[in-house]
Amino acid sequence: MAFINRDLNHRILQLSQEYACLLVSGPRQVGKTTLLRHLEPERAYVTLDDLEERRLARREPATFLSLHKPPVLIDEVQYAPELFSYLKIAVDDGAQPGDYWLTGSQAFHMMALAQESLAGRVALLHLPSLSQHEIYGRGEAAPFSMELAALQARASHGTPAGLDGIYERIWRGSMPGIASGRYTDREMFYSSYVSTYIDRDVSDSIERVDKLRFHDFIRAAACRVGQMLNVHSIAADVGISDKTAKSWLRVLEASDIIFYLRPYTSNLLKRTVKQAKLYFFDTGLVAFLTAYLTPDILAKGALSGAILENYVVAELRKTFYNAGRTGNFWYYRDKDGREIDVILEQNGRVYPIEIKRTSNPSSELANAFTVLDKGALPRGNGAILCTRERMTALDAQNFVVPVWMI
Going by fewer Cβ within 10 Å, which terminus of the chain is more open, N or C? Predict the structure, then answer.
């Protein structure tokens, strides 16, 4: 089993020289603990998966911290939010940079508690599942940029792949357990992943949840990746109320199973739709839930375009998370049917991106980009992200960028 180097390494070590407390959040099994223990194997370690340690941390947080002296890594800290107030005291009493490393899997609730209790005292980082660059690339990673020089630099850091290769990556997914070779049975891995997620994370969040129905709910959501969110449609498929569906979607979002792309709006763009679009953090999980048994079947299936879009949007976000930043991503659709798959807002400009399965995109695909000229921010370069193996351009303002270059 090979350790896969993470792009966030440098940022973790850098911030650990400045902050006494560092909190790394992220979905289940994306390698948070593995990464931190790899960076400092000599650091003391305690996990709140251990029920005795969890009980002590919740009932006697001061005693818990006295027993586990810094520098220490406290794993799954979301199980004992009582610790945050005592960590604040420790920091204020002179804790040294890097003394406390924390991990947690339930991002929203935990982040809110950490920001409230440790405001200005904790460095917050989000570790996603493995990026395409981490699995298949080389050299230093950087947040995705639409500037020509930045795109040309990316070409030297990736491994080219055409349509078949991209769908192999989509189908295999981005979980370290699969990519590292630790688990060779992909179906068993994802089956266990979903069961453990429902048994532990979901059951902790939803009292007396119907586990079989929740499994059906995740699958119903997976069938709608890349689509505008329709809560009623998902609820009807599963046989639950719209209110329950909204509540369950919040659980999926809070535990980083799904995320949304919000619509781009401007006072000057009057006819835009308001619904968010739904995506999953890992396309391998989507392929499993929707029962695509091979990459070839997936590439030819009804979900092929939507899951490619999901893959691209997730990878774009990872390039920012892995630099310790959050990118500003949107999508555009108006009531006249004009649509732009992704809009990247950066440096006071908006950059339109279209995602297509083709390897030979036509110039008409960039026609919708001009709608942004009516917005408040100036429009930058556009791009068609597609399955072509080499970068080219439609014209001076619009590039054709291979998906493998993200």
Answer: N
Residue 130: CA atoms inside 13 Å, Cβ hemisphere, count?
Answer: 26
Nearest to 217 by CA among 237, 232, 194, 197: 237
**Pairing mode, strands 277-280 and 258-263:** antiparallel
**In the chain, what is the straight-line distance between the N-terminal and C-terminal CA atoms, in Å?**
26
Those residues whose C-beta lies under 8 Å from the C-beta of residue 180, and which sit 6 or more positions away, are: 1, 2, 3, 4
Q: Could you give the angle at which helices 163-172 and 304-321 cross, rounded to 10 degrees?
A: 70
Please tell me the predicted confidence (pLDDT) of residue 108: 55
Cβ density class 233-262: b for 16+ within 10 Å, e for less:
ebbebbebeeebbeebbebbebbbbbbebe
For residues 310 and 283, what is the distance between their CA atoms, to the nearest angstrom? 7
Backbone φ and ψ of 299, nearest 5°: -65, -25
**How far is CA 79 from its chain centroid?**
22
Spatial distance between the Cα atoms of 387 and 177, rounded to a whole number of angstroms: 26
146-167 confidence digits (pLDDT tens): 999 999 999 999 999 999 999 9
- State the Rg of the chain over Cα: 22
Q: How far apart are CA 36 and CA 13, in angstroms?
A: 10
The Cα 152–Cα 381 span in angstroms is 14
Distance CA 103, CA 33 (A): 7
Closest CA to 27 of 84, 101, 78: 78
